């Protein structure tokens, strides 16, 4: 198994003659087969012809604690994709147990559960899922997780306040709503 991974990594590091890199080929295939949920929009900042493709994903949850918010994520793909997951960062400072105030995202498929069988569609669904199924286990934002685990009403209030661009626990959050 490990030898197969090493061979795949070596293959990915060598571009095929007269073709783009495997990363670009795989990402291009992912983009062609992509079926975006209606609450998301994808923008190509740097395309698959570039050495390091960069995408931006807008997520607009239509239910749950984050309903009405507009959140933007940056997805950066390196030459090791799909052997390694893209680097994902939330560009908005939001009050969320699984997203810290620097935008780092805690999502298992972006870390220990990543496999080359996963694709861009899986990443997008995973990010959308962060807003629908909040987890207070293994958090990046410990204060948000503590509030979520202790009192859901207080958590809902803190989320609404933060989405309006207010300060919670001496941290100023970005306004991500139109109301």
From TrEMBL:
Query: Which enzyme class, named as a word?
Result: transferase
What keywords is this UniProt entry annotated with? ATP-binding, Nucleotide-binding, Transferase, Ubl conjugation pathway
Q: Which CDD domains does this one have?
A: UBCc_UBE2F_UBE2M
According to the record, the segments passing through the membrane are none
Q: List the EC numbers from the record.
A: 2.3.2.34
What catalytic reaction does the record list? Answer: [E1 NEDD8-activating enzyme]-S-[NEDD8 protein]-yl-L-cysteine + [E2 NEDD8-conjugating enzyme]-L-cysteine = [E1 NEDD8-activating enzyme]-L-cysteine + [E2 NEDD8-conjugating enzyme]-S-[NEDD8-protein]-yl-L-cysteine
A GO MF annotation of the entry reads:
NEDD8 conjugating enzyme activity
SUPFAM superfamilies in alphabetical order? UBC-like
Q: Which InterPro entries match?
A: UBC, UBQ-conjugating_AS, UBQ-conjugating_enzyme/RWD
Supply the name of the protein.
NEDD8-conjugating enzyme UBC12
Organism listed in the record = Zygosaccharomyces rouxii
The upper taxonomy is: Eukaryota, Fungi, Dikarya, Ascomycota, Saccharomycotina
């Amino acid at each position: 198994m490990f030898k197969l991974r090493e061979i795949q990594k070596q293959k990915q590091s060598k571009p095929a003659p007269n073709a783009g890199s495997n990363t670009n080929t795989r990402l291009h295939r992912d983009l062609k087969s992509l079926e975006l949920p209606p609450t998301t929009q994808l923008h190509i900042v740097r395309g698959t012809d570039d050495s390091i493709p960069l995408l931006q994903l807008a997520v607009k949850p239509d239910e749950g604690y984050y309903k009405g918010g507009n959140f933007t994520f940056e997805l950066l793909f390196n030459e090791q994709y799909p052997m390694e997951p893209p680097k994902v960062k939330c560009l908005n400072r939001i009050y969320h147990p699984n997203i810290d105030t620097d935008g780092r995202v805690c999502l298992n498929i972006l870390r220990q559960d990543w496999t080359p069988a996963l694709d861009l569609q899986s990443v997008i669904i995973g990010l959308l899922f962060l807003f629908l199924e909040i987890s207070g286990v293994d958090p990046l934002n410990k204060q948000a997780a503590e509030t979520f685990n202790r009192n859901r009403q207080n958590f809902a209030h803190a989320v609404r306040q933060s989405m309006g661009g207010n300060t919670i626990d001496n941290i100023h959050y970005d306004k991500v709503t139109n109301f």
